[in-house]
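During the practical work, I selected for study one protein's amino acid sequence and its backbone structure tokens, as given directly below:
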Amino acid sequence: MSKLWKILDSRIVAVLVFLVISPYWFAYVAQKTLMQSFPFLAASALKPEVVEVEKASGVKEIVDVKQILASLEVEFVKINPSKWPGKQEALFRIKNASAYALQNLSVNAVFYDENGKVLDARSTMLLSNTVYHPGAEQFFKFDYDYERRLAGEKSNIGLAHSAKAAILGVDVVQDGTPNT
């Protein structure tokens, strides 16, 4: 029994157990992260599919939000180190190719390693006074935390080398106020 305990108590066994368990733990953490995104996605799904917009001429028009979303061009630019430890920033360019001024964008971003493996997915609202005017190009940043605390220990899930973003919802601006 003493020899068995020495083997089980050795560092090599601890390393082997870690190597066997860690992929499952990271998959669990990634799944939890994605599950935390679902309430946000569900809230986005509750936004209206059409909105009524009043043109400058006073004519009211029904606008399909899906068509507006399809007209937004989002392009990944690059990954930058963050000023905060354990973080990176993904820089994206967005062009509003719609005919409407937009605000309060709901964004989902997915981060990839150098082999194209998904590292993380995050959702957020770009709430600000920023108005995305028709034809205008602007940039926005999205944070990625590659260092996490798992079971009280610092863990590195890997540096991101690329990212993709999708706009899930917008508010159409008319007369200087969002049309929600």
Q: What stands out?
A: The chain is about 25% helix and 45% strand.
